[in-house]
Design brief:
Elements lengths: L6 H14 L9 H21 L3 H8 L7 H8 L1 E5 L12 E8 L2 E8 L5 H6 L7 H17 L3 E7 L6 H5 L2 H14 L4 E10 H5 L6 E5 L3 E3 L3 H8 L6 H8 L3 H6 L5 E3 L10 H19 L4 H17 L4
Parallel strand pairs: 3-4, 4-5, 5-6, 5-7, 6-8
Antiparallel strand pairs: 1-2, 2-3
Helix pairs in contact: 1-2, 4-13, 6-8, 10-11
Length: 316
């Protein structure tokens, strides 16, 4: 699947694919031509992705082939034991959580999952968690705190589910309590934004000591379409809204909202899952090594100060 701004790249890769099914006829060296076109395609990828606009970054962050939480968890963690339910209402498949091992270290992992197939997306509610999902996350944070296990959260959501049922069951309260819980656990807490980091649904899981963000991910208080609908009364102004929201990893790092940017492969994460996850693993290793040397009191104090400073505008 190619995005609308990748037209030239699509044409080049289409020609390469055609040539792969041909054999040398004496007039043209197929291997040499493929090599030439591949270099041209790679250069075009580099040029295109070096100057992406905020709206184009939104499209990349939403690409259906980007690695999802399930892809990451299968590659990065071993001995994963998923835990289900919030002990109040139901199980929410939009948030997957459990205990696992990361490089032989026991950790608690919590991640939003959009799903790959149509059935999985419906089951996961397209990654939009309901209150029971956030209450499950709170339960996992309590377990982590009790057994002194680092917490790793992975975020890829357009936002929390805004349906009537979710509101009736206390969506806002569930998100607020999750943020509160994140601020008081005395263990290392690392958040990674994989694709979309949308609204309070993302903040609930990203109130962390370290917030890492993939290079072409986005993180914002509202979607560009939602912002445009409020300000311009039309979602057709989403491009302008994306420019104004400062939602790219580069903008947010400059503003000190996130702590570091994880480099993606040439042409973004959806083109090479293995390299993306390798880079992600290294970033988590470095962050854990830094945080595990701090006491519980230090972790809580530094986390609180970090977000209080954002609120006060000291970092901006």
């Amino acid at each position: 699947m190619f995005l609308e701004f990748e037209k030239q790249i699509a044409e080049l890769e289409g020609k390469i694919e055609e040539l792969r099914h041909l054999s040398d006829d004496g007039d043209i060296n197929i291997a040499a031509e493929i090599s030439r076109l591949q270099k041209k395609a790679n250069q075009q990828l580099k040029t295109t992705y070096k100057k992406l606009s905020p709206w184009q970054k939104v499209q990349v962050a939403r690409h259906p082939n980007r690695p999802h939480f399930k892809d990451v968890s299968k590659s990065l963690f071993s001995d994963f034991i998923p835990l289900a339910g919030d002990r109040y209402f139901a199980e929410d498949k939009a948030i997957i959580a459990g205990i696992a091992k990361f490089n032989d270290q026991s950790v608690v992992i919590i991640g939003t999952e959009k799903g790959d197939t149509t059935e999985e997306r419906i089951e996961a509610n397209f990654g939009m968690a309901r209150p029971e999902g956030y209450r499950k996350a709170q339960r996992m944070m309590d377990i982590a705190n009790q057994f002194r296990l680092p917490i790793l959260t992975f975020i890829d959501t357009a936002g929390a589910y805004p349906g009537i049922g979710a509101e009736e069951r206390g969506q806002a309260e569930a998100i607020a309590k999750t943020i509160e819980k994140s601020l008081i656990v005395g263990v290392p807490l690392i958040a990674v934004i994989l694709g979309e980091g949308g609204s309070g649904g993302a903040v609930a899981l990203a109130t962390a000591n370290k917030v890492l963000m993939l290079e072409h991910a986005i993180y914002s208080v509202i979607s560009p379409e939602g912002c445009a609908s409020i300000l311009w009364r039309s979602s057709s102004h989403a491009t302008e809204a994306a420019n104004a929201l400062k939602l790219t990893a580069q903008d947010l790092h400059t503003l000190s909202i996130i702590d570091s940017i994880i480099e993606e492969p040439l042409g973004a994460a959806h083109r090479d899952h293995s390299l993306t996850i390798h880079n992600l693993e290294k970033a988590i290793e470095d962050s854990l090594a830094d945080l595990c040397s701090q006491s519980g009191e230090q972790l809580i104090d530094n986390r609180r100060k970090k977000f209080l400073n954002m609120y006060a505008g000291k970092l901006i």
